[in-house]
Amino acid sequence: MGVKSCCRKGCDEIMCFAYVDDIGYICRDCVEEFKLIMTRKGHAVDNILLIRYIDNELTKFVKDNEKMLAVSTINLNEYFDWYSLE
Ligand SMILES: [Zn+2]
To answer: Rounded to an integer, what distance in angstroms lies between the CA atom of residue 52 and that of residue 39?
Structure first.
């Protein structure tokens, strides 16, 4: 634990639990919420996952939290509509 601001969008926590390269500091509440979201996607916390995949999911979690929480499933067209540059 250290006095560092959580990098998650909208989180005011300053006592952070972890630091992830290229992502930033993250607090314990956000870590637990991220685990919950991943569990809902079918990834139990003890499942073996690619580190790159976790990095990508965590990056989306800290940056696009509102979208992530609004829906847990999506079709491919909607997914790319979110990330569309137009
Ligand atoms: Zn947080």
So the answer is: 17
Distance CA 22, CA 26 (A): 12
The per-residue pLDDT for range 34-74, each reduced to its tens digit, is 998 899 889 988 999 999 999 999 998 898 755 556 556 77
CA 51 to centroid of ligand 1, rounded, Å? 21
Q: What are phi and psi of 47, to 5 degrees?
A: -70, 150
> Hunting for tokens 């509509």 — which residue is that?
81
Distance separating alpha carbons of residues 44 and 64, to the nearest angstrom:
22
Global pTM value: 0.71
The span from the CA of 81 to the CA of 46, in Å, is 32
Domain ranges (residues) in the chain? 2-82
Question: Separation of 24 CA from ligand 1 center, angstroms?
Answer: 11
